[in-house]
Each structure stands twice: as C-alpha cells, then as structure tokens.
Design goal:
about 325 residues, alpha+beta, nine-stranded antiparallel sheet, 11 helices, globular, binds zinc ion
C-alpha cells in the first residue's frame, strides 16, 4: 500500500489506486499509467525514450508482414538463464518485495497486478504478474476477462518453455493489439461469423508456422473454444509429452467479439541461440512469434532476413502445412 500512497498526490491519480482498473483499462488510462510510472522511475523513462530510436526492418513471410527490431535493452531478457539452478539462485524480479521502490502496481481482477515493463519492446508494454509467487502454469483464462476490459490491448502469455524469462513466477504481458501482425492474419483468415476454433493450415495462406485461431462468441460454441485453449500446447522436447509449457497465446477484442490465437511450440530456443561466433542472440517469445523479432545485438539485426526468420520460426513452432 505504501507504494500506491506515494502516487495519490499526483493529479492523475488522486484516488484509491486499488480501484483504478475496476472500470477496465481504456486508452486514456493506459497512457496515464505509463506517464505516471515514467515520471517516478528514471531507468524506465530512459528505456522508453530509447525505444523511439530503435531500428527496425521489415520481414515478410507469406501472410505474416512482420519486422525485426534491434533492441539492446532486451539483452538481459533474451539471454536470461532459465535453467532450474539459475532461477533458484536469483531473486524473483516479479515478487513485490524484490521490485524497485520506484515501480508501482495496480491490482487487476482477484489475483493479478499490472506493472509497467521497465524494459519495453513496444511503446505500451505491461507485465501482468500474479500476486503470489507460483510457476508459469497452464494458461489462466483470466486473460480473456482482461482482454474484454482493455479493448486496445492484446493480452498474451508465454508457456514456461516458450520464451518466458521468469518461468517461476506466473505472468502475462500486454501491448497495443495494433502492434502485432499475427493478429491481423487471424482476423483475415477466420471470420467472426464462424465462432469456435480454426486451424491456420485450413486457411490456404502461406505462413511460417501453424496456429489455432479462436473466435470466442458469447454462446456455447465460443465458450467451448475458450475452455479448450489451455490444453492446446505443443510437445515438450524433454519429456516427449504434450505440454501447456509449449505455447504462446494471445487474447484481444475484435469489435465486440473476443478472439484468441494459440501458437503451439516445439522448442524454447532455436539451435542458433547463443553469443559464440555464428550464433544469434534470439529467444522467441510471444511478441517475436507475433511477427516482431527482437534482436539485442546489432550484428544479429544486420544478419536477419526473411529466410533466417522463417528457419527460426519453423524450428521453434510447427510447420505451416
Ligand atoms: Zn516471484
């Protein structure tokens, strides 16, 4: 509560912050939250300002009109050691007691807290952390409710072995839905008039990987699709068994209808991952899978092209056909 009280003197937040998200998360509030956080936190402010000079180049792979982004600020996350020993030896940066004193949080639904991500990939980038320290388990369907409350955002989730840099503390993320090219592909191939699940393979378009699209109408068909989503992961390369750890999932609103996409995964990182000569520092999470490939090192950014990106996608996801 102390951190929240720190903000109550500010013009935009002269009220009890615990209730801020009860009315949802409209555009105006999104901007106010980010501005308020950056005023309090110089490190985050510098990182958001740096984003405006981030270099990008287009990467077109069939219907996915994506881009690569050179983002040195993401080196820590992309290169994070996610083995059990390394995780157990570091302090969890998503637990409230370990967060920097400048970082504030906004309670959302029963179990979650909205945080401004201090190492952004996009100009609006939130982390949505579980209030308790518990592992990145099966997909939480609270994300559907969050998407309904935040019509400008895509709420997304990295399975524990699919790009999550903190698999020990359950969390989702959110960015503006307009920033993620994969969502446009789903909107194009899967009409709202056909509620339920659809395989991208059945759409007859060229894609770098296969995914499952869901149109979640407020009826039995939509609800059946929603309840099926948490079981749609790929195969865990260690156990050889189907696993909720192997997927990236997105929820967003298309007008008044909720949509989701699940991308099953078969590898956490590509073979080329690394910093040795000939390797690339690339560790695809949901934003990369949605078409924005993040590269912290300039040499990897220069070497990236559509052919290499397609190879990486095919390696960590399942073939498109
Ligand atoms: Zn934690």
């Amino acid at each position: 509560m102390t951190k929240m009280k720190d903000l109550t003197g500010m013009a935009r937040f002269d009220r009890d912050l615990s209730g801020v998200l009860k009315g949802g998360l409209p555009t105006e509030l999104i901007n106010d939250i980010i501005e308020a956080q950056l005023e309090l936190w110089p490190l985050a402010k510098a990182n958001y300002e740096r984003l405006s000079s981030t270099r990008r180049k287009p990467l077109s792979i069939g219907s996915l009109q994506g881009a690569s982004q050179w983002n040195p600020g993401r080196a820590g996350s992309t290169g994070a050691s996610v083995d059990a020993k390394s995780i157990s030896e570091r302090k969890c940066f998503l637990c409230s007691e370990n967060r920097p004193s400048e970082q504030f949080s906004l309670p959302w639904l029963e179990e979650w807290e909205l945080l401004v991500n201090p190492f952004p990939i996009l100009p609006v980038h939130f982390t949505i952390a579980c209030k308790e320290h518990r592992p990145q388990a099966a997909l939480p369907l609270d994300m559907a409710a969050m998407a309904e409350q935040a019509p400008d955002l895509a709420i997304f989730y990295n399975g524990a072995k699919s790009g999550a840099s903190a698999p020990d503390h359950q969390h989702a993320q959110a960015v503006l839905k307009s920033e993620l090219p994969l969502l446009r592909v789903a909107e194009t191939i899967h009409p709202l008039e056909r509620p339920g699940l659809m395989l991208s393979r059945d759409a007859g378009v060229e894609l770098p990987f296969s995914f499952i699209s869901a149109v979640i109408s407020p009826d039995a068909k939509g609800m059946a699709a929603l309840s099926a989503l948490p079981s749609l992961g790929g195969t865990d390369p260690d156990s050889g068994l189907p696993s909720y750890k192997m997927m990236n999932t997105f929820f967003w609103m298309d007008g008044r209808t909720l949509r989701a996409v699940v991308v099953p995964r078969r590898a956490h990182r590509p073979e080329c991952f690394g910093t040795a000569p000939g390797k690339m520092l690339v560790s695809p999470g949901a934003i990369d899978i949605a078409g924005i490939l993040i590269l912290p090192r300039e040499e990897d950014f220069k070497a990236m092209n559509s052919t290499k990106a397609k190879e990486i996608y095919e390696e960590v996801c399942y073939p498109a056909s």
